[in-house]
Specification:
The chain has 373 residues and is mostly helical. The chain has two domains: 145 residues, no CATH class; 155 residues, no CATH class. The strands form two sheets. Strands 1-4 form a two-stranded antiparallel ribbon. A two-stranded antiparallel ribbon has the order 2-3. Helix 8 crosses helix 9 and helix 8 packs antiparallel against helix 10. The longest helix has 27 residues. The structure holds 2-acetamido-2-deoxy-beta-D-glucopyranose (4 copies) and calcium ion (CA) (2 copies). The site of one 2-acetamido-2-deoxy-beta-D-glucopyranose has 2 residues, from loops. One of its GO terms (cellular component) is extracellular region.
Amino acid sequence: MGKVSAIVYITVALLVLFLISHSPKKHSGHNRHRRLKLRSSFSFSNPTRHEPVPFDPLVADIERRREDRQWEKQYLEHTHPEFTDDHAPGHESKPEWEDFMNAEDYLNDEEKFNVTNRLVLLFPKIDVNPADGFVTENELTNWNLEQAAKEVLHRSTREMETHDKNHDGFVSFAEYEPPSWVKNDNNSFGYDMGWWKEEHFNAADADGDGLLNVTEFNDFLHPADSKNPKLLNWLCKEEVRERDTDKDGKVNFEEFFHGLFDLVRNYDEEDHNSSHPSHDSLESPAKWLFSQLDKDGDRLLSDEELLPIIEKIHPSERYYAKQQADYIITQADSDKDGRLSLIEMIENPYVFYGAIFSEDEDEDDYEYHDEFR
Ligand SMILES: *[C@@H]1O[C@H](CO)[C@@H](O)[C@H](O)[C@H]1NC(C)=O
Ligand SMILES: *[C@@H]1O[C@H](CO)[C@@H](O)[C@H](O)[C@H]1NC(C)=O
Ligand SMILES: *[C@@H]1O[C@H](CO)[C@@H](O)[C@H](O)[C@H]1NC(C)=O
Ligand SMILES: *[C@@H]1O[C@H](CO)[C@@H](O)[C@H](O)[C@H]1NC(C)=O
Ligand SMILES: [Ca+2]
Ligand SMILES: [Ca+2]
């Protein structure tokens, strides 16, 4: 951070703190019926479901530590049910629950976890490109993406331990076991295709040494978020195999239109405003896109020709990060200039802590009532 922007920040931060300490506590009544919640998101049966990642790395860290413990317990129950006999003397699940409550109490104790101070602290870490006192959609997307990437890598690291049987920090293809939801159902997505098989594994093995380190293993689990060209190329090949109903090795217009086009269009939808020319048939934007992608003009799409849209076919973390950023900006951008100042952020704290703050449904547990609303 340059000198000038440091000065800008200090000035803005002081100004904000001044404004806050001198303004009537207009949010305090509001706060009363909010409680910061930790999510309990880990699911063995559906580990691929997409959850938004907390905006605040401190909250993410608390959730992660809690989730790790939950995961260990579930993992043990899955693999060694004999060790988790509920009737065994001394068996107690209560301590974990208490830790969880303590963490939530901590987050809801404004003396310890002051949301305003958190936002003041985080703002300069988000406002970096350029550091001009405003957070743009792009800066917020990058921030969200950074948080999501940490989360994803954390989960991959944890999962890697279950595959790395000889504990050398690498996973070989012999060690790797496909997810149980793939093994148990022959017809499920990915079974008859190449997912979790040797070709997929080898594509993820960037340096080709036959072993996946944690970076490569993370890419293996999340190919669409990878920057490894071999793996992206594999993903395109896989997409062709999956769409290629007439088995000619390429995707023709019919195969593209009935399957791929909707995915790409839905992805792009929010970028377009509703100026759909009504006289046009639905097929013409599809034909247009098809011809754009068909670089060699053979009226078929090869795997290389799918590369420009592969990230849209398999929504990447960037896609979710952008969605989350767009949502936050529409909610907090009070002056409607399309970007967020620190003051706008501080005045709308629940937008940032929205994934974990919730209007409490279970009112009986708390003493606030409708008069506060
Ligand atoms: C949070 O921090 C701000 C700024 O330092 C301060 O004005 C406010 O009183 C704090 N809130 C609580 C509940 O301590
Ligand atoms: C799945 O495949 C295995 C081996 O190919 C076969 O023995 C089993 O019957 C199949 N199960 C189902 C539900 O089709
Ligand atoms: C894993 O291997 C890849 C390819 O050689 C390398 O780029 C990456 O830095 C390695 N990751 C770690 C954590 O060592
Ligand atoms: C749609 O976008 C175009 C430019 O991309 C703009 O000129 C037009 O005003 C927009 N229409 C609406 C309804 O927002
Ligand atoms: Ca390797
Ligand atoms: Ca604004």
